[in-house]
Amino acid sequence: MIELSSAPEVTEWAEAERAAGRRIGFVPTMGFLHEGHRSLMRLLRPQVDRLVVSIYVNPLQFAPGEDFDAYPRDPQGDAEICRSEGVDLLFLPTELYPAGFETRISVPALDRSLCSESRPHFFTGVATVVHRLFRVVRPHLAAFGEKDYQQLAILRRMVHDLDMSVQIVGGPVVREEGGLAMSSRNAYLSPEQRGRALSLSRALRAVREAARAGQTDTGELLRIGRAEIDVDRLEYLTIVDCDSLQPLERLQGRGRVAIAAVVGRTRLIDNMPIEVD
Ligand code: AMP
Fold it and tell me: Chain-centre distance of CA 189, in angstroms?
């Protein structure tokens, strides 16, 4: 496995691979890798000739007072995981934005609901950094987790609208035993908080089961979900259209139930597909 930190060197490598007819797959991350990240590497590995993982804690997507400085890091463990998943190039950018970089990318239509309400600059930071990473790594395929469902929708839309020649692949949410969605931020949770954090996925499952049993009134579905929640602050529990991400009043066919909540000082998100016959 090659490790590079210089963006121009990565682009040179990628151009040479492309010129030799090899297909490049890419998994961008913020590090402190876990099974959720591994699942994306495993999803792409058989589909590509070269697999690239990046680890970059992107300052553009953190607001003042958020956990940018405290974000967990484990460079050695991360490199070990990448090696064991057959990664060819681990990109560890020291500097990703050239001096004077002022451009921002946003997808306003999908950046109003869900996490945008509490983190208004977050998805502009995400879209901008992913666009920048794609320019550097030049991938044919890039994988993102459904754990960050709104992020995935925004990136799909960015790639479509800007006619970018990369295919976005989504991977299902990977959970710990008990249902907690894996996240690097779970490392912040005490054992007691971890217990209460399980109530997020419990609420989503309760909504999913009630929908399966025929309940279509989203007000009633959300009431059933809220009864399960044991957190310090619920930011949202909502049922949205899978594509527009707009809240639904009545579930017809498929939808997505999504939650964001704070346990202790840790903000957690999760979501599940739901369906009524
Ligand atoms: P992060 O390092 O948190 O920025 O995540 C990097 C990528 O891994 C993103 O595409 C996430 O959606 C994905 N990811 C993180 N946690 C999970 C999970 N539990 N299941 C599936 N994908 C995940």
Answer: 19
Given ligand 1 and candidates 29, 53, 68, which is best to mutate, with the most ligand atoms within 8 Å of its CB?
A: 29
Is 131 an active-site residue? Answer: no
Cα 194 to averaged position of ligand 1 atoms, centre (Å): 19
Q: Which of 34, 37, 121, 160 is catalytic?
A: 37
Q: How far is the CA of 32 from the centre of ligand 1 (A)?
A: 11
Indicate which atom in ligand 1 lies nearest the CA of residue 183.
Answer: 16
Strand partners, 169: 143
Cα–Cα distance, 54 to 136 (Å, whole number):
11
The whole-angstrom separation of Cα 227 and Cα 232 is: 14
Q: Are strands 254-263 and 266-275 parallel, antiparallel or unpaired?
A: antiparallel
CA of 220 to the centre of ligand 1 (A): 30
- How does pLDDT run along the chain (277 residues), one tens digit per residue? 999 999 999 999 999 999 999 999 999 999 999 999 999 999 999 999 999 999 999 999 999 999 999 999 999 999 999 999 999 999 999 989 989 999 999 999 999 999 999 999 999 999 999 999 999 999 999 999 999 999 999 999 999 999 999 999 999 999 999 999 999 999 999 999 999 999 999 999 999 999 999 999 999 999 999 999 999 999 999 999 999 999 999 999 999 999 999 999 999 999 999 999 7
